[in-house]
Design a protein that fits this description.
This protein has 541 residues and is an alpha+beta fold. Helix content is 43%, strand content 12%. The chain has helices spanning 4-17, 20-23, 104-118, 178-189, 209-220, 255-259, 269-289, 318-322, 327-353, 369-379, 382-392, 400-447, 464-476, 483-495, 516-538, and strands spanning 85-86, 131-132, 135-140, 151-158, 164-170, 199-205, 241-247, 253-254, 304-307, 310-312, 361-362, 365-366, 481-482, 500-504, 511-515. Helix 7 (269-289) packs antiparallel against helix 9, helix 9 (327-353) packs antiparallel against helix 11 (382-392) and helix 14 (483-495) crosses helix 15 (516-538). One of its GO terms (cellular component) is P-body.
């Protein structure tokens, strides 16, 4: 452990190097102070949508926007466990319908994420546009009632690939220079790392003009000439706003919400190292592989916890886009910015390690350095303090002591990553298998008891199709809701096994013996015939 003098040097280093950038790392929304002053940078040419395939500066399409329909919630909603439903025989005899395929924690988290992605807000009273460029089904992820907010985040679905993305919209006329936004996008869009949220696109838009106007009128009155965020009350089309598009992690929380708010008991040291190494890996990649810096994206309100034990730097590229300096000046400052990255990371990890001490850590940041150091000396091995000391003194990074500290922990993190990968592969295999059973069950539903073909003499449920209906009754109309039995039956049908089964008519007068292989052939033949019949019925259009 470093002696008292080294602790004093750690304290002195923190005090000496705190620049405006370092002090802002724990702000809920970080934008360099220079960007907030009106007239700092003018936009002579409207900024086009920036994507990996397009960086031309042309105005976006500002066609009429529409908003319709009420709140849509298409996520699965299931009540408490049904006592008549039986799960796979390997577990308890009673379970919720959705718990049979995935381990509980993963299932709950993924279901919550799917529910959020499926929701959208299309109430005209909300003022949200129907679409913004290629993105639709917008849903605010943050409160939009704060008149002093500088940015807000929306969930949106891309019309190009159908995936959800997070749109971070900066309110009011764009204060960043077009060339800086383009440069920041080009630099940070290239960053691909497992511990960094990827920047996917950037564009300007006037789509939110109606929303800004309604919010302004509600707060300031109908006669106001200027809204609080600087947009003209009339929503003038020249007042384009800047939007950054990132990959979305529906159930993610900030590090402040997840680790530094609520339960703040001491983290196990091994867990601390797992988290610390992820952030060190992200910062090193930015510095060494991409010759960039995190540039204010390291802080309790910026780092995302996307799943248990997984951290990702968020909002990369935003501060660079708002920086008013030219590229040559930025390049001359890159070394200092990278140095500040390490210092900001040391502060964040020190707050994480000392989170149990409310006197040392408040609102996710260190307020009493000496109290924080005393806490980690009590709770952790000397290696943690040595590690934080190296971070706070960036000249020591990559030294022999630094490498030894990291190497000792990397093997354990590597083992945990492999174990997690094995678990995910097992879950993926189960989900893939169950997905196949869903397809088989859906095919069976397609061809049995179709009311639209009930009067068609060529589609009578006789012969092969009659056997399929009896099999459907056997699988789904049993007196007990035994999900494991249903699973077994569909698995055998999907595999087309030669096992024989007994099918019984509804009146109990007829009994027929057939194999699963026969039923599989009947099912595929019925589907082909149904597809041809529907194509003929619907015509060439």
């Amino acid at each position: 452990m470093p002696d008292k003098s080294s602790g004093d040097r750690l304290s002195g280093m923190h005090a000496a190097v705190k620049s405006d950038l370092a002090e802002a790392v724990n702000a809920e929304e970080f934008v360099p102070s220079c960007a907030g002053a009106p007239g700092v940078a003018s936009v002579e040419t409207p900024l086009a949508a920036l994507s990996p395939s397009s960086v031309n500066l042309t105005a976006p399409n500002l066609g009429p926007q529409s908003a319709s329909t009420a709140l849509e919630e298409r996520g699965t909603r299931t009540a408490s466990a049904n006592k008549n439903v039986r799960k796979p025989r390997s577990g308890s005899s009673e379970t919720n319908l959705l718990t049979i395929f995935l381990e509980g924690d993963y299932r709950e988290r993924w279901r919550a994420g799917s529910d959020l992605v499926a929701r959208s807000l299309r109430n005209p009273a909300s003022g949200l546009p129907f679409n913004v460029n290629q993105y639709h089904s917008l849903l605010p992820l943050e409160s939009t009632s704060n008149a002093s907010a500088t940015a807000t985040v929306y969930k949106a679905i891309s019309a190009e690939d159908g995936r959800p993305y997070a749109l971070r919209r900066y309110l009011g006329p764009m204060l960043a220079r077009s060339d800086n936004v383009v440069r920041a996008f080009r630099n940070y869009n290239a960053v691909i790392h497992p511990n960094i949220v990827r920047l996917q696109a950037a564009f300007t838009t006037g789509a939110f003009a109606a929303l800004d106007l309604s919010r302004h009128l509600a707060v300031a009155g109908a006669d106001a000439a200027m809204s609080e965020n600087g947009r003209r009350a009339g929503g003038h089309p020249s007042d384009l706003e800047l939007v950054f598009v990132y990959d979305m992690y529906p159930t993610a929380k900030t590090m402040h919400e997840y680790y530094l708010h609520g339960d703040t008991s001491i983290l196990p040291e091994e867990f601390f190292w797992v988290l610390a190494l992820q952030l060190v890996s992200a910062v090193q990649a930015l510095h060494e592989q991409y010759r960039l810096c995190a540039y204010g994206a390291i802080g309790a309100h910026h780092v995302l916890v996307v799943s248990p034990n997984r951290l990702k730097l968020n909002k990369i590229g935003i501060a660079a886009a708002f920086d008013p300096d030219d590229e040559d000046i930025l390049l001359s400052k890159i070394g200092e910015y990278q140095r500040q990255d390490w210092i900001a990371l040391s502060e964040l990890l020190l707050a994480l390690a000392a989170r149990s001490n409310p006197r040392a850590v408040r609102s996710g940041s260190v307020r009493d350095l000496q109290a924080a150091l005393e806490t980690i000396r009590t709770a952790y091995s000397p290696d943690v303090e040595r590690f934080l000391h190296c971070l706070a003194n960036p000249s020591q990074i990559s030294s022999e002591g630094w490498n030894r500290l990291l190497t000792m922990r990397l093997w354990r993190s590597y083992d945990l990553a492999l174990s997690h990968g094995d678990l995910m592969e097992t879950i993926a295999q189960d989900a893939s298998s169950d997905g196949n059973l869903f397809v088989v069950g859906t095919k069976l539903a397609f061809v049995t008891e179709r009311t639209d073909l009930a009067g068609d003499p060529q589609w009578s449920e006789i012969g092969d199709r009659y056997l399929l209906k009896l099999f459907r009754d056997r699988v789904f109309h049993d007196t007990e809701l035994d999900l494991e039995r249903v699973r077994d039956e569909l698995r055998r049908l999907n595999a087309g096994t030669e096992e024989r089964i007994l099918l019984e008519s509804r009146d109990g007068r007829s009994r027929l013996i057939v194999t699963y292989a026969d039923l599989a052939r009947f099912l595929e033949a019925a589907l082909r015939e149904l597809a041809l019949r529907l194509a003929t019925q619907n015509g060439p259009g």
